[in-house]
Amino acid sequence: MLLCVAFSAVLPLMTIVNYSVQDIISPTQKVFVGTEWFQSVLRDPELHAALLRQLLFCGCVLLIQLPLGMAVALAMPAQGWRASLALVLLALPLLVPWNVVGTVWQVFAREDIGLLGQLLLRAGIHYNYAAVARDAWLTVLLMDVWHWTPLVALLCYAGLRAIPEVYYHAAAVDGASRYAVFRYIQLPKLRGVLMIAVLLRLMDSFMIYTEPFVLTGGGPGNATTFLSQYLTQKAVGQFDLGPAAAFSLVYFLIILVMCFVLYGLLQQADGPAAAAGRRQAP
Fold first, then answer.
1. Any idea where the domains of the chain sit in the sequence?
2. What is the spatial distance between Cα 196 and Cα 202, in angstroms, rounded to a whole number?
3. CATH 3.40.50.300 fits 35-256, yes or no
């Protein structure tokens, strides 16, 4: 296991660290530059704009997908063939490969042959994701919501099914409303599941690349150029291996710090509830 981790993670990481402090002139000629590439990358205004777009996208993803996924899970049947059918249908978007998702939405949103484009055109709404930055950004967001909300819904559904029926029986005896059941039974019991969903969706949305690349190529302009595409342009398009390596380390640290802070906040919020539960336990 250690060898596999070293081969798949440690060695590539050390290679990136090596590239980030050198100016690679040719395969046989390298010059040590220290932190020059890090300073250059951190002062890059294009990086600042891509980071802002990335943070805005991640915030919208979490604000939409978490409540929507929980609502879908609450509306699903609890058991029987309807529950099985709902689970299968819900999981279908998750089975579509990332590059195919971008291609599907590329056709779906076209104004001439796409269903979405045709509906908006007939409704009198001017829509063109290939030319209008706002339309492109909203299309990428809608595409991600369609693709990954089922994951949140499945996690919430599993958490709901794990709640013992005795809680619902006690709530029925007390005459609790549906909102009270959700507020005082379901939501506290889903805290751990929601923590997993938040971390998964934060990391995945912060590293999104394939879907917007296939759909818009990062355009129009730089409207959908997120951090991963900015890194690819540096490394592959411009072949600036030193700056690209430095930025990849900065990118990695940003994700690591965000997840660490978010996990700490969620754990801190979970602490008082857990302590209250222990105090009330007989």
1. 35-256
2. 10
3. no
Please provide the DSSP assignment of 141-179 as one string: HHHHHHHHHHHHHHHHHHHHHTS-HHHHHHHHHHT--HH
Are residues 229 and 213 in contact, defined by beta-carbon separation less than 8 angstroms? yes
The H or E element spanning position 32 is strand 29-32
DSSP 218: T
Instruction: Give the whole-angstrom CA distance, residue 172 versus residue 244.
Output: 59
pLDDT digits (tens, 9 = 90+) for 175-233: 888 889 998 889 888 888 888 898 889 888 888 888 888 888 888 888 888 888 888 88
Phi, psi of 281 (to 5 degrees): -70, 145
Q: CB burial class (10 A; 0-12, 13-18, 19+) of residue 280?
A: exposed
pTM for the whole thing? 0.84
Q: How many helices (H) and strands (E) does the chain have?
A: 15, 2
- Say if residue 164 is preceded by a cis peptide, omega within 30 of 0: no
Give every CB contact of residue 134 below 8 A, 6+ residues apart in sequence.
Answer: 223
CA distance 107 to 129: 11
pLDDT digits (tens, 9 = 90+) for 65-87: 999 999 999 998 888 888 889 89
**Which residues, including other chains, have CB under 8 Å from residue 36's CB and lie 6 or more apart?**
23
Handedness of CA 179, 185, 190, 195 (dihedral sign): positive
Containing H/E element for 119? helix 115-122
Amino acid at 50: A
